[in-house]
Structure formats: structure tokens, C-alpha cells
Design brief:
homodimer; 208 residues; mainly alpha; Tetracycline Repressor, domain 2; DNA-binding
DNA sequence: ACTCTCAGCTTACAAGTGTACGCTAATTTA
DNA sequence: TAAATTAGCGTACACTTGTAAGCTGAGAGT
């Protein structure tokens, strides 16, 4: 094994170790460098050969999580394209994601409201991507004016993430209940924005 | 000053000290007993005369925050009763609360997704109260079936808290923008649930 | 083959942590 | 007034933390 390969491998070990430690209810800021090193099977000081800081590792993890989030979106689109209701399919995909990658989602959730401004910003950016893609999709599919679509997408993402937080600690049965409630709530928003646009048409006192 | 009075006073000092420390981006679990003692102006070991644990102090703080939340609801109702749109008034009241008691709301927000299962549960309970009261209000005011009202209330609270999180770190201008978006989104939900009920009436294939 | 590079190690230190133990001084009780 | 209670303090100890300094041995480059 070449030297570079070996280095990459330990780096991955460190990242995996960090995710491992996140599994058992902890924040990034509550994980010590020494713990990560221990879990990764290296000496504490060797950590510095790969990351300047725990902060640098943290941002790497957030990026990694963001990546997973984007893959999730792509998967949802694929499944929607091959049939099935948009809301139902999206929520199902999302819930499967949470169940399968709970530590990834937990990371995003925790750090979104967490202690470090840098992490908060990084997570917010990832969620913003998510929202942007959804509003593009809504505009494209439903032919809704831009500003309404943006509002709708933002509200939907907020609901999805908030429900996801609850689903994170739930068993299968409860998670199903959360799913179903979420789907109905998303439909409220969709219906609501349509009703709003309808009301504009009925008494067109504004522009556009 | 009697002995009991003095004790209560130091206890309040400890609580105030903890809130003070929460102000500068920190979690409960990231605050040490010694720091709290230092800030409260007592010896570290004296802390134990008042609380068994940092956890016990934490739960006390969450309770305190929940109390503030309930006062907020009462205030909103009073303001609604004395005129003004329900959604507008509620959101305005909420945003004022966040601006004035940012550390209280931050505490709830952080610990809701935080490290300690006990805190998470405690916060969830407070939010549940909030949701329950709102759904009661909706049932009473809008004459909407129970299950729809509950869904609507839950969705609204989710949006409000999520937007509140963003508002927490925003300046006045941005906070206003968040307020306005939130108001429109809440109206979507309201419109949506009404439209849903309407659709049930048009083709009544189900029971009630 | 000879040197260079550098991932990972060991050792070491100052700083901070929770909390056990026992003392003191002032209030409360009898 | 004498005895009992107790809020608060000081000291002490065993740990954990981040990271500085310097060494080693194996792969890379010539």
C-alpha cells in the first residue's frame, strides 16, 4: 500500500470514528480530539497530520452529510419519475434515509442549532440547497409563480426537517404515524398555496 | 434576611448565572459546574447545597423556559382579544418574545435537539403544551374537526419554531422579513386545511 | 544505494473538570 | 443561653483535555 493510500485510509478511519461517536448522543463540540483518535486507533497527536483542528474535522463531516443529503434528493426524484405521488414518495424516501443514516441526519440537526456559528452556517447552506432544488421543482411541475413556490418550498422543508427530528428517536410504528401526519400537512401547504393563487385570480387587484 | 431567603437568593443567582453563560453560544452540557459557581459568585462545592447535579439545574432551567413560553401564549391571546389578526398578532408577539428573551428561546431550541434525552423530553413536553393550546384555540375559533385542527396546529408550531430559530441570529431587518414569510406560510396552512375540508364536503365519500 | 520526507509514536505539561471531606460561622431551635 | 443545623468555603485528588517537542522507520525520489 502506497504512502498516500495509507494516509487516505487513516483519514477515513478518523471520519468514521467521529461518526461512530456521534451515534451515541453527542455533539461535535462534545467530542474530544483524544476520543476520536482513540476510536480511530491512532495516537492523539497523529490526528494533526490530517486535520488542523477538531473544527476542521467537523466541517468535513458537515460537508459529507450535505453530500448524502443531495444524493437523497436525487434518489427521490428518480423514484418520483418512475411513478408514485410526489409527496408520498418524497416523504417515504426521506424517512428511509433517516432510518438508514440516522447519525448523518442527527449531525445536521444538532449542528443546525448548535454551538458553533461555522457549523450552523454550513448546515444552513446545505438546507438552503435542499430548499432551492425543491422550489425549482415546484415551479417546473406546478407552474406556480416564483415567490409563492419559494415560500411553499421553505415551509415544506421546515416541516420535513422538524418531523424528521421526531422520527429520529421513534420506533417503526411511531415513525409511520409521523410520516402520515407529515404527508397530510404537506398537502395542506400545497392546497393552501393553490387556494391562495386561486383567490388572486378571483379578485385580481394586484399586478401579475 | 432570613436563612431561607438567603438560600433562595443564591439559588436564583445560580439560575441567572447559568442563563448568563447560555447567552454566549453554549449548550447546557457545555457549561461546567465550576463556571456556573464562578459566575454566581460562590465556591464550586457550594453548588451542591442547591442542586444535586448540573442535570438538575438544567431541568430547572427548561421548566423556567417553559413557564416563559406559557406566559407568551397568554399574552398573545390577550392581544388577539383586543383586536388584530390572529396570525399577525401571534407571530409579532412571538418574535418580540424571541428578541427580548433570546437566551430562553435558544435554550429550548438547543436542548430540543440536544445531547441529553431528559432535556429533549422536557422541551418536547413544553412544545406539546404549546401545540395543544393552539389546537384547542383552532377548534374553538374555526369550528374545524379535531384531527384536522391537531394537524394544522402541529404544522404551524413547527413552522413558528423553525422560523424562530432563524430569527434568533438575525438583525431587525432580516427578522422582519422572516416574520412576513412566516405569516404567509401560516396562511397557506390555514387555507389548505380549509380547502381540504371543502373538498370533503364536495365529494363526501367518507364518514364525517 | 543514499538521502529525504513524513505518518505515526511517546513523553510531557499546564489547565480545567467533578466531587469527597472537613471546617466555620451564623441562624434556628429548644 | 445552650445546642443543633446548615450555607458556604478551602483543600485535595484523580481524571481528562489540547498540544508542544522530538524520535523512528518505512516509503519516495534521485
Amino acid at each position: 500500500m502506497s504512502r498516500q493510500e495509507q494516509k487516505q485510509k487513516t483519514r477515513q478511519n478518523i471520519i468514521a470514528a467521529a461518526f461512530q461517536l456521534l451515534n451515541e448522543n453527542r455533539t461535535l463540540s462534545a467530542i474530544s480530539l483524544r476520543e476520536v483518535a482513540r476510536e480511530a486507533g491512532i495516537a492523539p497527536t497523529s490526528f494533526y497530520r490530517h486535520f488542523k483542528d477538531m473544527d476542521e474535522l467537523g466541517l468535513t463531516l458537515v460537508d459529507e452529510a450535505g453530500l448524502a443529503l443531495r444524493q437523497l434528493m436525487r434518489q427521490a426524484r428518480r423514484r418520483i419519475a418512475s411513478g408514485g405521488g410526489v409527496i408520498d414518495t418524497s416523504v417515504d424516501t426521506f424517512m428511509e434515509f433517516i432510518a438508514a443514516n440516522s447519525n448523518v441526519f442527527r449531525l445536521l440537526l444538532r449542528e443546525h442549532t448548535g454551538t458553533s456559528a461555522a457549523y450552523r452556517l454550513a448546515v444552513s447552506r446545505e438546507i438552503q440547497h435542499f430548499t432551492d432544488e425543491l422550489s425549482d421543482y415546484i415551479i417546473e411541475q406546478l407552474r406556480i409563480p416564483y415567490d409563492v413556490a419559494v415560500l411553499q418550498a421553505e415551509a415544506m422543508v421546515r416541516l420535513v426537517f422538524s418531523a424528521g427530528a421526531d422520527a429520529l428517536e421513534a420506533d417503526t410504528i411511531l415513525r409511520n404515524a409521523i410520516s402520515n401526519r407529515l404527508k397530510r400537512q404537506l398537502r395542506f401547504i400545497q392546497l393552501g398555496s393553490l387556494a391562495y393563487l386561486q383567490s388572486l385570480q378571483d379578485k385580481p387587484s394586484n399586478n401579475t
